[in-house]
Amino acid sequence: MSFRETILNEALVIFEQKGIEAISTEELLELLDISRGTLHGIAATKRDLVQHCINHSLKVRQAEVEQTMAATNHPLEAFLQLLQLSVEEVRSFCPAFVQDLRDYYPRSWARLELFMRALSRDYLQPLLEECIAAGYLQQDLPPEMVVRLFLNQLQGLLNPQLFPASAFDYQQLFKIVVVYHLRGCATPLGQAQIEAYTYKAMMA
Questions:
Q1: How far apart are CA 122 and CA 134, in angstroms?
Q2: In this predicted structure, what is the pLDDT of residue 89?
Q3: In a 3-state reduction of DSSP, which class is residue 137?
Q4: Residue 17 placed within a domain
Q5: Secondary structure (3-state) at 30
Q6: I need a surface site. Which of 18, 28, 47, 167 has the fewest CB within 10 A?
Q7: Strands (DSSP E) along 150-193, which ranges?
Q8: How many CB atoms lie within 10 A of CB 158?
Q9: Can you give the residue range of the structural domain that contains 136?
Q10: Pick from 187, 173, 185: which is nearest to 84 by CA?
Q11: pLDDT confidence of residue 141
């Protein structure tokens, strides 16, 4: 990993944990332990830095998606892994980070939304179709609708009034939001696969 990538990773973690607007440039420099000149060599403005952070983060997430797809030939396991990664990602955001992106950095927020739509179209929906064809899920299940419902539920996890970070860990939320709902759509064969995956994931 290059120095630039390391700084972008660290800056994004700071933004995700503390929000963007709440952190001044001086505080950011202190937390990153770099000079203003070094930061300007990476991004001319704070807005540029946020955009670079999001773009780099999406490249990392895309690599994780492709690695997941390459690591398993089982469509149901791949589907569950991708949703588990998404739940983990969402739970790493503080509410202020999400609100700041929506309010002050619409271009970066739009990039995140485009990524989620591409994830749905190119990976999640085709995996569900494979699961149905293989007999793991009910034959009359509409894949596009199911994926949209899951992604809508993920957005709900960003609401701190409904899901305070201190009250629920991501494993609990993954079981409630993904596993229990998907189990209701599964055939007995699929339910056995879901149980096996859940046991392995919870023990990790």
A1: 19
A2: 84
A3: strand
A4: no
A5: helix
A6: 167
A7: none
A8: 17
A9: 56-203
A10: 173
A11: 93
What contacts 79, CB < 8 A, 6 or more positions away? Answer: 124, 127, 128, 131
What pLDDT is stored for residue 87 in this prediction?
83
Residue ranges in the chain modelled with pLDDT below 70: 160-167, 170, 201-204
Q: What is the pTM of this model?
A: 0.87
Nearest CA to 153 among 65, 100, 93, 87?
A: 87
Distance of alpha carbon 138 from alpha carbon 67, whole angstroms = 28
Cα–Cα distances (Å) from 96 to 21, 92, 162, in that order, read 8, 12, 15
Overall domain count for the chain: 1
Spatial CB neighbours of 26, under 8 Å, sequence gap ≥ 6: none
H/E/C letters for each residue in the chain?
CCHHHHHHHHHHHHHHHHCCCCCCHHHHHHHHCCCHHHHHHHCCCHHHHHHHHHHHHHHHHHHHHHHHHHHCCCHHHHHHHHHHHHHHHHHCCCHHHHHHHHHHCHHHHHHHHHHHHHHHHHHHHHHHHHHHHCCCECCCCCHHHHHHHHHHHHHHCCCCCCCCCCCCCHHHHHHHHHHHHHHHHECHHHHHHHHHHHHHHHHC
Question: Is residue 32 assigned to a domain?
Answer: no
Here the CATH number for the domain that contains residue 130 is: 1.10.357
Q: In the prediction, which pLDDT does 180 show?
A: 87
Predicted confidence at residue 204, as pLDDT, reads 57
CB 57 within 8 A of CB 106: no
Does some domain include residue 79? yes
